Amino acid sequence: MTSGLLLVGAGGFAGAVLRFLVSGAIPKAGEIPAGTLAVNTIGSFALALITFSSVSDSLIYLLSIGVLGSFTTFSTFAYESFRLMEQGEAKYSLLNITLNLAMCMTGVMAAYLFTGH
């Protein structure tokens, strides 16, 4: 367990730095935050690539949970929604997508209102 925690922590540090560098290097495309879009797209691809491959638990801790967990959290959302569709659970996939979007936007709006903007 301790080695897993260290791998997640090291990966998390690396992922956070990578996100900072990548998203900061890509300017907005009009009003679209292209840096965030880029890291989410890259993260989704990388998580699926790792998950669909046979890799060791150590690599899962380091790369999937650590690096990609802090590089982006959208990758997990995209992967889980895809897996539901792949498993023939289209209604749950769509519900997952809808709930994620609705709850995240509601959370942003609540914080916006709470801070008096």
From TrEMBL:
Activity control mechanisms: Na(+) is not transported, but it plays an essential structural role and its presence is essential for fluoride channel function.
Gene Ontology molecular function: any one: fluoride channel activity
Catalysed reaction, written as an equation: fluoride(in) = fluoride(out)
Membrane-spanning parts: 6-22, 34-53, 59-82, 94-114
Membrane topology type: Multi-pass membrane protein
Pfam families: CRCB (PF02537)
Residue ranges the record marks as coiled coil: none
Keywords: Cell membrane, Ion channel, Ion transport, Membrane, Metal-binding, Sodium, Transmembrane, Transmembrane helix, Transport
Entry binding sites for Na(+): 69, 72
Function recorded in the entry: Fluoride-specific ion channel. Important for reducing fluoride concentration in the cell, thus reducing its toxicity.
Subcellular location: Cell membrane
Protein name as catalogued: Fluoride-specific ion channel FluC
UniProt family annotation: Belongs to the fluoride channel Fluc/FEX (TC 1.A.43) family.
Lineage: Archaea, Methanobacteriati, Methanobacteriota, Stenosarchaea group, Methanomicrobia
Major location category of this protein: membrane
Record GO biological process: cellular detoxification of fluoride
GO cellular component terms, A-Z: plasma membrane
